[in-house]
């Protein structure tokens, strides 16, 4: 198990891009017109035209993270997790469900890669929940968004508190770990309700096994919200 040990860095793969401020797309071409560079807040595309014809394309994704916020309700010992629900901006034949339900997280658009203060701020902005950075532990890495192969740091937090309303258009759901696991499994066959995160089943299943082995300690309800 990988732990951050406090305000450290996330275990993100080496092959990644530096974060940048979230800004509109930027397109640049070389003077000879043979190289095209497209930069977005989520990925960068580089296209190089070869002298003998044809072209070479490279795509690198910016790093991201997902954090499962864990709690125990006062009337049950079963762990619960925080999910978010928001309206899909664009529907496609593959993703034809109007609403997205997912584990909170995001891309590192700005700040240092893996900085836990950025993680705290991003989760607060999205969910209205403020996590205690000292309770954030990262358990591994995964590749999500197969079309751009985003390196994602997976983790959990055991102490958080609600300090404000979630971002406009976002609904916070607190469900049992069992229910969340079922929703993650449903995604494999696109049975509703399901979790949008491609990495959710791996992450939630890993956390459930760690709980069974008593490798994760969730504070009691009266001390949960630090």
Question: Descriptors for this entry?
Answer:
about 15% helix, 4 helices, Nucleoside Triphosphate Pyrophosphohydrolase, seven-stranded mixed beta sheet, about 230 residues, alpha+beta
What this model shows, in words?
There is one protein chain. The protein has 226 residues and is of the alpha+beta class. The chain folds into 2 domains: 26-61, no CATH class; 64-224, Alpha-Beta Complex (Nucleoside Triphosphate Pyrophosphohydrolase). The protein has 4 helices and 13 strands. Strand 1 and strand 2 (35-39) form a beta hairpin. The longest helix has 13 residues, at 200-212. The two termini are 24 Å apart.
Mean pLDDT: 78
Q: Between the first and last Cα atoms, what is the distance in angstroms?
A: 24 Å
Give the biggest sheet. 7 strands, mixed
* Top CATH class of the largest domain: Alpha Beta
Question: How many discrete domains?
Answer: 2
Structural class: alpha+beta
Number of DSSP strands? 13
Annotation field: number of helices: 4
Radius of gyration: 19 Å
Basic shape: elongated
Strand content: 25-35%
The CATH topology of the largest domain is what?
Answer: Nucleoside Triphosphate Pyrophosphohydrolase
CATH architecture of the largest domain: Alpha-Beta Complex
- Low-confidence segments, ≥5 residues, pLDDT <50? 1-9, 11-20
Helix % is 10-25%
Q: What is the CATH superfamily label of the largest domain?
A: Nucleoside Triphosphate Pyrophosphohydrolase
List the secondary-structure elements in sequence, H or E: EEEEEEEEHEEEEEHHH
Quaternary = single chain
